[in-house]
Write the structure tokens for this entry.
Amino acid sequence: MKTTDTPPPADAPGPAGPQDTPPAGTVTVRPAVRRTAPPAAGESRSGGVLNVFSHGVLVIWAVLVVMPLLWAVMTSFKDDRSIFTRPWSLPDSLHFENWSRAWTQAHMSDYFLNTVLVVAGSLAGTLLLGSMAAYVLARFEFPGNRFIYYLFIGGMSFPVILALVPLFYVMNNLGLLNTVHGLILVYIAYSLPFTVFFLVSFFRTLPTSVAEAAIIDGASHTRTFFQVMLPMAKPGLISVGIFNFLGQWNQYLLPTVLNTDPENKVLSQGLVQLAVSQGYKGDWSGLFAGLVMAMLPVLAAYIVFQRQVVAGLTAGALK
Amino acid sequence: MQHGKYRFIVGFLIVPLTLYGLFVVWPFVQSIYYSFTDWTGLSPDFAMVGFDNYTRMLDDDTFWSSLQHSLTFALLLPVVVLGLALFFAFMLNVGGRHRKGSAISGVRGSGFYKIVYFFPQVLSIAIVALLFQFAYNPNSGAINSALGAVGLDSVRPEWLGDPNLALWCVMAVLVWSTTGFFVVLFSAGMASIPKDFYEAALLDGANRFTTFFRITLPLLWDTVQSGWVYMGILALGAESFAVVQIMTVGPGGPADSTNVLTLLVYQKAFRDGQAAYATTIGVALLVVTLAFSAIVMRLGRRERLEY
């Protein structure tokens, strides 16, 4: 979206924008005009009404977003009886045993460990392989360059479920079904389209002179990439890393199809599994504790790294 | 030098390409081939059956109702979500009271709103779906007991249990979980629109309504359009699968009132042992997705505004 991410030049002429923008001359005399002509009283009153209205709507949406989350936290501290009889009442006492029960008996600790293993492996692999492919595609001319590039980014708009049916049997034949390393490889493969797309455009924005200097100094292409280009690409790697981290941590479709062994379940499918089994046992408080347990670390990390997360997740769409 | 360059290119591309080819491209190609066979997925033997699966699909009522639900998602969700997000983003960036020194400003506390609105985006869709499944519970869920608390005891919908309501309940969850992302996305886009334009428009007496439709929306159009395609693909694909599979009874029920194409592919392949037929439905989903993207790109084509 080139029109939205290029900062305007300092002397951007006004009329280049929408048709009803006045000539540039009007803009330059603005300060004087504004000081002598404050908005009319009537206009500011209607602005006030609109302000109350817009503020009201914003508050309502904020409440709608926060309420379910708060409700879940509250419920996770209640006992089963009051969950059913008084869903909105505050817990009579903080039942921390819900949390310990979810962590140990309901296997939340295993799900956490599996998720950390899978995401750590696949995130490292995605960033390494994605940046290697993107660097070559962005910086080197060779026959088939365009074809490979479009092959990668084409993967972004295809429905994943279509590939999953044969993929299940491919994985089965390779002995990778229901294994942690198999899931890591699949996560990497399905993260590559966006990663390559994003990093290709990022590598193109980096200056060529530094890499050329390194080559002239006798560094090999490989060494130039790892010691010169990768450090320069750090901001891009962080953005796309955050994007992939959230996508892979929250992944539900791929593990549901390819990772059905109860031993290896990751967090999102483990919780769904938990919902089914706790439903039979009637342990709703334990389930809510599990839900909140899965929710809080990501929310906490988001609040701490809020700026980077937002930049990472929106960068791709604005590029 | 040349020799070294090609060795380097091949060396760097071989692993990512092999992985991508083996796990993404090859299964895609295979699935289109399988859609012309009678493969069950359970045994390795299969035979070519031509277009049998496709004619069967055209006679399948479940397929048609799933297609209808998927299309409803793809057509309605982007409109609702992007509309809400544009409104919120405009309020947060331009909708504030005029203050000294700046022609336009967001409402007070806009930074706080942006942080809060983004919460659902960082949560797994599976967690969100589970949470709302409990909130919708007709007897002890948060929504019905809140209705009871404000004296609406007589109105106690069955929500997910009611075939006429279930699809809307599912859509509401998708709206809840995706709107925040677009608010933040559009906010970033609006922040890069030069302030001069707004100042000039305000001087000419434009109100906020006009400002939005004459300045903000045209300059943001590219972002809106790619957001539209992105949202449509989400609504047709993975997000709708998770929400429907986790939340609805059956899943896909009651009485097939919420089934979507993604879930139908999953059920046919991994529950009913009809892998070939599942890929056929998958191909239909692929056609719908590509047609959707093409139509949005085509309809949304505007003159590019450079500024």
Summary: Chain A touches chain B through 117 residues (CB under 8 Å). Chain A has 17 helices and no strands.
